[in-house]
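Morning run. Coffee first, then this:
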Amino acid sequence: MKKKLLNIGKYLGFLALGIFLFWLSFRKIDISLIWHELSEANYLWAFVALLIAGLSHVFRAMRWNLMIESMGYTTRLSTTFFAVMIGYLANTAVPRMGEFMRCGVLTKKDKIPFNTLFGTVISERLFDMLVLLILMTTVIFGQWTRLGDFVMQWIRPFVATIGSQAVWLLVLVVIALIVIAIGLFFYLTRRKQLNRFPGYKKMYALISGFAQGVKTITQVRQKGLFLLYTLLIWLSYALMVYIPFFMFPETDTLSPMAGVTLLALGSLGMVAPVPGGIGAYHFITNSVLTSLYGISAHIAGSFAVITHAGQTLLNVIVGSVGYLILFLKGTNTTKND
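And here it is:
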């Protein structure tokens, strides 16, 4: 009960943070101007962006299938795609829940071990974080004259906080290293005795399966295809951001590089631990468009509202349809007994 209350408290805290950031993004904007821009926007471009977003999720499912197949399991693309979309649906409500949900879907439908699937998701996320880091580094240093002051405004408070807490951070690192060292020593010297403890073998099997899943990224047979799907995923993401620029006369002159910049920096809002990225995405998008490209605050706010709402609707609708198809209709899927 205590743990449940703690989780509810954390969720409400992050939700409150998202609402605060949402308010912070729009507090100085005339809402009537937002409504006017929303009524005048050319939604055809938003629709095209959503089609590309759906395609990016298909590429993600295809890439995940490569990792699953490298472990000797099989699953249909439709099942994997709907599992991915159900995961996005879960993330809309509870941050980071989607990774568990999509693995749970395939475990239930195709009898693939959950811990192994979760390992592949962790591996996939780490790889995408590396791609995002490379993209952000390229964007920032490639446009330092434009982005330098903007980035430093975000970094200075963080560096100042780290500096003021340096001693405590060092103590925590040392304690963590000592605990890890003691744990390894105990494991290596007492391995035989550990086998006698109830549940040890089951726990070892879970960890082994998770480790196997994490390693799949190095074991994928078709590495060229894996990289191609990754390229298509991120190209789709860039187009998803760039194409909606044509919704407004003020943003339709922005370059594709502006779209890539917004993708790189705006992704931080979507990975923030707030439900569906609400508030965080709007805050970062508004800041990038107004501070870097001189876009009016009400146009930037309208852009953020439409693109975020479109992505959320796509995840909710397709994720819900996927759940109905997979579980209520009981579609036949590949079994891995």
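The chain is about 80% helix and 0% strand. Good start to the day.
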